[in-house]
Write a sequence for this structure.
């Protein structure tokens, strides 16, 4: 499999006209918004859904987010985000999202990623706010996901430093 | 001076309610939007304003964007972005934005940054699209900015790799 094609697709969306800039292309910050919604979907996936968050007062904060913009995307384009767990500890998730086209466009272009995002997420008790360990049932889901993803290749746009060529 | 307090403030904004998540805090992607607008302001500053872009067909694409989220920001908070040129060549700008509070809030908190963003920008002829060298008058402004910023300390959140502690 290609190093950027993971199988866990948790989020799908269609690019909205109001997310596009004067060039008619998706503005950088709205790639980030699609990835942000993918992180919301990941929270649901590990049992930190909205109902659970409201009850526990726990949530996920993004500490750091790296984005690589690989291809232009336009209003109306259908995209999907696949998610990889690169690492975790009792309070943190190190994740990688890869965005690609779906629908008819996926057949007409070399179907590589259009963007990638590496993120460090922190589990927080919002009543502090302060960092908090995952509840046992959430930690169990995180560990199961880590086991599933342990054999996958390190993705192309993780671990990057920005520098001039 | 503090390493994150640069003097070139090109963009000011007020956090909108619709940019905030269920916690009432600015969502990560909308910090990115404020930084994206700051990059637009930088384009104007170096002579790549909207009129010039329409005439020349040249623009700036973001290749890569790193974001660090340092403090929570809420609807109504007034922010400003200061911008530092870390490096440049004939086609690329390596920049650093630092976001801080302004107005009354700036007096009531330790006035450090609330977020930072390091970015690699590429000058593009949108008719390709393909990378393009800066026009001489733009290159002159870039070089003047580089000379002004050459003596400043390397900022705290530039050059980072994401990894678990």
């Amino acid at each position: 499999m290609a190093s950027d094609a993971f199988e866990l697709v948790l989020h799908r969306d269609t690019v909205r006209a109001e997310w596009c800039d004067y060039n008619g292309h998706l503005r950088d910050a709205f790639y980030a918004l699609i990835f942000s919604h993918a992180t919301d979907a990941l929270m649901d996936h590990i049992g930190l859904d909205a109902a659970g968050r409201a009850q526990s007062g726990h949530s996920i904060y993004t500490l750091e987010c790296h984005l690589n913009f690989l291809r232009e995307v336009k209003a109306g384009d259908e995209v999907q985000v696949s998610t990889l767990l690169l690492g975790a500890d009792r309070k943190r998730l190190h994740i990688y999202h890869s965005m690609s086209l779906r629908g008819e466009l996926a057949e007409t272009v070399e179907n590589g990623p259009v963007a990638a995002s590496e993120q460090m997420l922190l589990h927080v008790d919002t009543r502090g706010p302060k960092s908090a360990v995952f509840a046992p049932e959430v930690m169990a889901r995180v560990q199961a996901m880590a086991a599933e993803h342990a054999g996958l290749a390190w993705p192309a746009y993780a671990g990057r430093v920005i520098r001039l060529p």
The first helix of chain B runs from residue 28 to 45. Chain B has a mean pLDDT of 91. The radius of gyration of chain B is 16 Å. The longest strand of chain B covers residues 58-69.
